[in-house]
Amino acid sequence: MASIDLIRNRRSVREYKDIPVSEEIIEEVLECASLAPTARNVQPWLIGAVTDRELLSELGAISDHGGFIADCAVCFAVFCLADEKYRLEDGCAATMNIIYACEAHNIGTCWVAGDKKAYAEDVRSLLQVPGEYTLISLVPAGYPAGKVAAKKPKRTSEISFRNLKK
Ligand SMILES: Cc1cc2nc3c(=O)[nH]c(=O)nc-3n(C[C@H](O)[C@H](O)[C@H](O)COP(=O)(O)O)c2cc1C
Questions:
Q1: Ligand 1: does its nearest atom lie under 6 Å from the Cβ of 100?
Q2: Quick check: CB of 111 below 6 Å from ligand 1?
Q3: What is the pLDDT of residue 75?
């Protein structure tokens, strides 16, 4: 799919078919995450790809609006070094690369909040991630089941501006 179409067609997917995502695709998605831009090129990430059903159920139970993680094929968990000034921006850039890399394989995803959530520390501890990292996002992924409602984005004219008035 052309890149612009990927962006136009992406929607959050919260229901998944019971079909695994191949190790090859998971590896490629992780590679795409690692290609995201970062402030000062620090690349402060540690990114999990969780496929274990028990862990997925626990992640679904821990998150307040991410119960559907329990049903996904793989959940990417983006962590960044907590002491890095631009950890949030860097982690979000990696998160979007994960989302679009999945989309390129017709794999649906939904960004589930991590940063600022009370459960962030529980997720870190569950996944045995070292204490210097902090959770930025969770991205459950899987082949979409069911239909996703059409999106009504704000109009470009509403959300943009051009040059300042002279
Ligand atoms: C920072 C962030 C946190 C989000 N957290 C959740 C979440 O916890 N649970 C959820 O179901 N969706 C979550 N979403 C997905 C949004 O609800 C979704 O992107 C939004 O409704 C627009 O729909 P779309 O992704 O289909 O365009 C999150 C999105 C972002 C960017």
A1: no
A2: yes
A3: 98
Q: Which of 49, 39, 99 is nearest to 73 (CA)?
A: 49
**Structural domain range at position 111:** 3-159
Whether the CB of 66 sits within 6 Å of ligand 1: yes
- Which positions of the chain have pLDDT values less than 70? 1
- Determine, yes or no, domain membership for 63: yes
Beta bridge partners of 113: 137
How far apart are the CA of 142 and the centre of ligand 1, in A? Answer: 16
Compute CA distances 112 → 5, 135, 164, whole Å. 23, 11, 36
Which residues lie below 8 Å from residue 103, measured CB to CB, with a gap of 6+? 1, 6, 9, 10, 109
Provide the domain count of the chain.
1
Structural domain includes residue 165: no
- Regarding the beta carbon of 110 and ligand 1, being less than 6 Å apart is answered yes
- State the CATH number of the domain containing residue 137: 3.40.109.10
In this structure, the residue with its CA closest to atom 27 of ligand 1 is 11
